Every structure is written in structure tokens, then in C-alpha cells.
Amino acid sequence: GKVFLSPLRNELHPSFNIFKDKISDKLLFKDFGYSISNDCFGFVQLIYNINFIEALRLIDRDFSLGIAIPL
């Protein structure tokens, strides 16, 4: 994986890791400063403080995925 400065807080040393999980084959993140990890939906939920459906709508809109999301 790759290590970056955390987008969740100010820091001087990289502690935000993006990696491919060997078991699920999904791209995940882990923030070692907060001891949290999740997928892209969880990341968007954290950054924007929104629920899963709102995160799904945002990702669908930004990437033009065409997902049918109920209202």
C-alpha cells in the first residue's frame, strides 16, 4: 500500500495507509492515528459526516456510475 498524510487531521508524519486487502480484494484505508479502517464508502462518510446512502449518492454522482439509488 501507500502511506499519506491523514486527510482526517493535521499531522507531520504520514500515517494514512491505502492498501488492497488480500482476502476481500478491496481497496481499503487505515488511519493509524485514529486506529480506524474502512472502504471508500466509509471514507466518504467520515470526510463529509454523512450516512451510507448519502455517500453512495455522492460517489455515484462524482464518478457517473449510474447506480439506481432509492429515494
Radius of gyration: 14 Å
Mean pLDDT: 93
Q: Tell me the series of helices and strands, N- to C-terminal.
A: EEEEHH
Structural class: alpha+beta
Question: What fraction of residues sit in β-strands?
Answer: 15-25%
- Give the termini separation: 36 Å
Considering DSSP H and I runs of 4 or more, what fraction of the residues is helical?
A: 25-40%
Adjacency order of strands in the biggest sheet: 1-2-3-4
Query: Strand tally, please?
Result: 4
Q: Any descriptors?
A:
71 residues; alpha+beta; four-stranded antiparallel sheet; 2 helices; 4 strands; 30% helix; 23% strand; globular
Q: Can you walk me through this structure?
A:
By secondary structure, the chain is α+β, with helices and mostly antiparallel strands. The protein contains two helices and four strands. A four-stranded antiparallel β-sheet has the order 1-2-3-4, with helices on one face. Helix 1 crosses helix 2. The N and C termini lie far apart (36 Å). The model has no long low-confidence stretch (mean pLDDT 93).
Topology of helices and strands:
Blueprint: E1 2-4, E2 16-20, E3 27-31, E4 36-38, H1 40-48, H2 52-63
Antiparallel strand pairs: 1-2, 2-3, 3-4
Helix pairs in contact: 1-2
Précis, in short:
The chain is α+β, with helices and mostly antiparallel strands. The protein is built from two helices and four strands; from the N terminus they run E-E-E-E-H-H. The N and C termini lie far apart (36 Å).
